[in-house]
Amino acid sequence: MYSGIQVFAAPRTHNAPLTSNLTEEQRKQLCGLLENAELTLLYKASVHGYQASAFHQRCDRQGPTLLVAYNYSGYVFGGYTSVDYAQSGQQIIDDKAFLFSVHGGAPLCIYVNSGNYARSDDAGGPNFGQQLYFCYNNQATVYNQILNKYMGVKFNAFNFSPATLYGNDTQLSECEVYKVEQNPQVSAEEKPWRNVLWTADRRLQLMKMIRNHTPLMTSVSRVKILMIGPVGAGKSSFFNSINSIFMGRITSKAMSGSAGTSLTTQFRTYPVKDGREKKPLPFVLCDTMGLEEQSGAGLDIEDINSILQGHVPDRYKFNPTAPFQPDEQKASRPASLQEKIHCVVYVIDATKISLMSDKLQEKLASIRRKVNSLGIAQIILMTKVDEACPLVEKDLQSLYLSSYIKSKVQEVSSRLGVPVSCVLPVKNYSQELELELNCDVLLLTALQQMLNFADDYLDDAGHE
Ligand SMILES: Nc1nc2c(ncn2[C@@H]2O[C@H](COP(=O)(O)OP(=O)(O)O)[C@@H](O)[C@H]2O)c(=O)[nH]1
Ligand SMILES: [Mg+2]
């Protein structure tokens, strides 16, 4: 039976934000095994404890779930069951159940042998086929029960070898359980829930409106739009996409696709020029680079306040340990309306909305309160709609027919407290070599909306 050092992880606070240990690549691989379902983290042993009771408290009656265990040898492995955990005392028939392992390369997937019970639905920790027990004995271990004919079992429910599944390393560094929800994205609505004219004429018309946009206040020559969002959400890509449209070819002026955290948080303002004429367009996109969820990392609420008030100069490097100090001369008089931010855009990755941590949501909420108090217009730019929904990936025109995208728009709206009508889904240019009409129409529509919203703000500010 099991021998070795047993690690007992004491449960930490129950309010700690749950963050998945899966890498983006692993998440994609697992979602692939589940026909692109969506994963929501329910239980994390290092946070809630390895006890069976902690597991059941979080995971019972949650529908289909995916268990993901991690060991010190770098194996990510576990199992899927489509049947609720319910402590029913029953043997569960579940022909969709499988065991998996991700250890470099393509994931291994082992389905339950037909006619076998996929698991025993008892009060103990999670098990598969009464063969593989996770959090065995309420500990950070996995236990492989070797069955034989003397135990009255004809066949193993799962044919796996502990060596390939988890490298024979029974010591777990983590164990997570995810709720698995099948994306309703294959279901297309009959009528689009927003109307878009996907035509070259419309693109031309939008470009013309944007070019000729004159901010409502004569003292303001260019609308200042601030983009805020986590690293990797697509802020730089949005700027590059807009720049590309007006240049008539794919450009990449702002560095995009950088690593996990933005170590230097630099404030950049990007004017956009109109094609070869080099005439500046009437807006500036401001990029804050990163919004890390931990405090003391990424942008701070005070820094954002300084940006909103127009005190922060281009290329200013934020110090993650101390807020921005405006120089005294400047601080004594308030910035002019021209220098202030006129529209705030929260850039949110459509594929990450459900996995958004409480910390990040809180941080965004405190920013929103600040922005609200200043009366500045706010918009959510929901990026990566192509990655989020296969229907949309195939054809961007089906965006407003996708029930899944609709549900994501509603979810991000309620998580951030911004009305649904202010959520603008887009697909940025990321790997494309050429401009594409549908992409352009969506991106320009979003920009046009930002300019309109900024006008509402300027209108209000002008009356004060
Ligand atoms: N498929 C897809 N990829 C995107 C989209 N927007 C951004 N990306 C990719 O996401 C990664 C991060 O984007 P980036 O603009 O650097 O994010 P930032 O940290 O917010 O500036 C890059 O690899 C982009 O190519 C999108 O709409 N669709
Ligand atoms: Mg960036």
Automatic annotation (TrEMBL):
Q: What sequence ranges are listed for the domain TLDc?
A: 16-181
The family database entries (InterPro entries) matched by this protein are listed as: GTP-bd (IPR006073), P-loop_NTPase (IPR027417), TLDc_dom (IPR006571)
Superkingdom per UniProt = Eukaryota
| Listed Pfam families | MMR_HSR1 (PF01926), TLD (PF07534)
| Similarity comment: family membership | Belongs to the IFI44 family.
What name is this protein filed under? TLDc domain-containing protein
| Organism annotation | Cirrhinus molitorella (mud carp)
